[in-house]
Amino acid sequence: MGWLxxxxxxxxxxxxxxxxxILHGHxxxxxxxxxxxxxxFVANSILQHSQIRRIERLKISQCADNAREYITALVSDxxxxxxxxxxxxxxxxxxxxxxxxxxxxxxxxxxxxRRKERALSAQLKNQEDMKTIRAKTKxxxxxxxxxxxxxxxxxxxxxxxxxxxxxxFSILGPHTGHHYGDVVLIFKREILHHPDANFSxxxxxxxxxxxxxEWRPWFGTAPNPKVESTxxxxxxxxxxxxxxxxxxxxxxxxxxxITSRKMNKTPVEIDLDKVIQxxxxxxxxxxxxxxxxxLIPLDYIxxxxxxxxIYKALSENTHNIVDxxxxxxxxxxxxxxxxxxxxxxxxxxxxxxxxxxxxxxxPTRGAILTIPxxxxxxxxxxxxxxxxxxxxxxxxxxxxxxxxxxYIYWQLMNGDMMLTLSAKPxxxxxxxxxxxxxxxxxxxxxxxDASDDVEYHEQTSYLNSGxxxxxxxxxxxxxxxxxxxxxxxxxxxxxxMTLCLEIQxxxxxxxxxxxxxxxxxxxxxxxxxxxxxxxxxxKLEFIHVSAGNRTVPIRNLIITFEKQEDLHLTxxxxxxxxxxxxTEKASTETRIDRTQMHHPTxxxxxxxxxxxxxQFLNRVSQIKDIVFGADDSSSLKPCPKGFNCxxxxxxxxxxxxxQYSHPCRYAELCRNPEPNLTHPRAPRELPHCSSDTNCKxxxxxxxxxHFFHTDLPFYLIPCRRQKSCNDxxxxxxxxxxxxxxGLEEIGEETFEGRVDYFSLKIFFHFHLSxxxxxxxxxxxxxxxxxxxIVPATRVPCKxxxxxxxxxDAKHCEKYSHPPxxxxxxxxxxCKWGTQCHDHKSDHRRKYSHPSA
Length: 852
Prior knowledge:
The chain has about 850 residues and is of the alpha+beta class. The protein folds into 5 domains: about 1-10 and about 165-200 and about 240-350, no CATH class; about 30-150, no CATH class; about 375-565, Sandwich (Jelly Rolls); about 580-635 and about 655-765, no CATH class; about 790-850, no CATH class. Helices cover about 35% and strands about 15% of the residues. It is built from 30 helices and 30 strands.
């Protein structure tokens, strides 16, 4: 089983095929090779070559179109001059094919080449790029001619009937088929997890010939006379895929049965050594044959073996590419013929042993594929359906039912992909509007230049029901079930991101969230409850993936029916960083003489309350100097732009905010001070807006700065477009300011004598919600061991029933609250009050709620 989980596919080919593979930049199926007779197809293949894709200007659509026409004309010219140009029905290679006269056609093509070359040269402005395009076109066109004249493969007509002509043949394990060629390519294990890959215990042609019935008698007797459809159907029904749970168990049982029959031993006597012993003595058609995707990039080749004689026979260009790309994974042998084949088989046998250091450390799980950019027009179905996955899962977990929650996990890069679940396979030609699909769209990751002064922006990720072809309509009309524009906020988007789609079939609730490390920093959960009349989640069967305007790599896509706890990291929501170390350090390094602290007289009590705040903060400043030193490195220069600074909210904010401080948008009401924010030293007595959150002037930054509105900041985020902004929507104007006159003056008045982060933290730690009174005589006060705290005339708390400190005795000695607030409840009052719909135990333990 361990061997089956780590063994890799091996492909063998001849010199001519290998040179073509290197020049094209891909390993190709027989069907793909057939298409290389069409100039248009070859042009697309050339544009996909890694060297051509490095040309940045070709990402511009007009440049790409000119390059495609130019390359197609060049390929047509090369093909015709070589006598290879063929006309395929529906393959219009040129716009001037109506010419009967060859001379006129050649002249027209030459004119087209000159015209497109002139336009493309002007657009690229780099002659080296033009040389690369011309050279690669010539190389690949000539290699395509040679490849078409020397097709490889056995039983090619049979392959067409079986459909295996669309796949790349390989052996899953040591490849003994020397007649296929002496160049041996070992592919990475991951390619087996592509949805288009599969494998059979013996060659696909053995089903057609009927040999499989002899080699595996449990199939029954071969039809007589031969029934092609029955035998082909048997092949497709017995194919296996590594993303299906239990594939290795089924494969191991068959290998044991085949080996025991061949060696006349009982199944219990069969081990891996005996399986390999039989493997190396039979024809390669009798061992595991893997059928891989039709086009495999060179990146998926892990190791190459070839004789010295073939290496020396490579063309100079192929030589250079091989030395450059595979210098660390190329093994040359001076052996020939049978000795070379023995050497390769022994090398492969040792390499695939489970304890070999070259083997992957742990098996890959689920499906792996790279989805090409198709603007969501092509949807790739996974080989495993939900009911099949459920049946497999139930073998080890019998408690699973049709109402059990489905969890789909996958990793992706960059985003702009769609995961679609449907009751039937999606067919672009036969769409049925009555059958709604579950659409899970993950937007492209947000990206901008760090030097740009722009605010964070992210496209909408969403859940919806409908057809995947409606994506552009959903986006245009902003019609989503559940959505988020902050799905990547705080995530590491430069690496693979793990996502989890949770489908609660019993209730119709669907959740999309991050899993793995990013779940620590981003707690966004896109959620929606779909009514059964709109989408029946119990009928969902097929899983499809598709990409928008970019190629999207997907890894480890699995279907399970229990939450994978190792992918959902838990945090302690009640953890509060203590201040004991700071207090202990202060007390050991210096003693604060309480007798030297200023105690206000009775007259002082009638003064403005900010006098006490100022004294306290001055004293805190002294403590800060004692603990951290007078030259505190955390002090920042005030930003000249103040709260109108555009950089503080941009992608470059981290660097800027580490050097400059900015006024806090919540001013003295801030309850979560940050190191780069400053706050007013003197509390202001601003009036509470009579309309509060229903105020019609919430879009007016001047009004917001002069009046208090519940849960809203005083100052708005500066819009990056400022006065040139054309967005007059209420939502935008409530959130962003646009350089209104008078804001700078308000900021200068408010934040004169600002308070730093450390001081405000200490301020909130001690609440500053009590009144220190020293009405006693100096002699009596000296006998007191601590300050006397007495009730003063309480003032109404500005937070009212929403106050988070309502359970704090010291706070309540100065501020009054509406009746009904539980004084002995240490929980935080929930901001939703009686309207709260969160009945989870962890929420109720942390937040209090007034009785109905």
